[in-house]
Amino acid sequence: MSTPTRDLNIENTHIKTASDVTISDNQKTLIGSVLDLFAGRPSLKKLQLWTDDGVFEDPITKAEGRRQYEAQWYGFQTVFSEIERLHHEVTSAGNPISMDLRTRYVVKGMHKEQTIDSKVNIFYDEATGKITRALRKMNAVTVPRVVGVPKHDEEDAKKGFQ
Predict the structure, then answer these.
(1) pTM recorded for the entire structure
(2) E strands, 94-130, where?
(3) CA distance linking residue 125 with residue 133, whole number of Å
(4) What is the pLDDT of residues 119-149, one digit of tens each?
(5) In whole angstroms, what is the distance from residue 2 CA to residue 23 CA?
């Protein structure tokens, strides 16, 4: 891949790695762009680092193909009023690139704050250097905290599920 990081306006350029992990310049670009995406800072240039048939998947959603994953990444700005990366560390520089990530989100309108610990795997095509898949696994208690489940029939009825 020949596009310099500065031309992509990648904000996350200081990539923390585990002591035994060394990353290439291309991997640094991919990681920085994915960190920007999780921070709600997408751009068409950054998304050009993805293949057209790329996939983003986490326990809440699966976005397949450019149309879906672009909407997913731009949706972060719509859903969250605040996004703060608290920690990241690249734990493997293979394919996939593996990274631990801790992010604080505040849901718009609800002012509900949630810190999410996750493991992110970034798969990429070694020939083109483009991302083919990003998979986020969240800790076991994240989804129940983010997705509210009614506690009784009255709450269920208010949500329109009955």
Answers:
(1) 0.82
(2) 97-107, 112-124
(3) 9
(4) 999 999 999 999 999 999 987 554 455 556 6
(5) 16
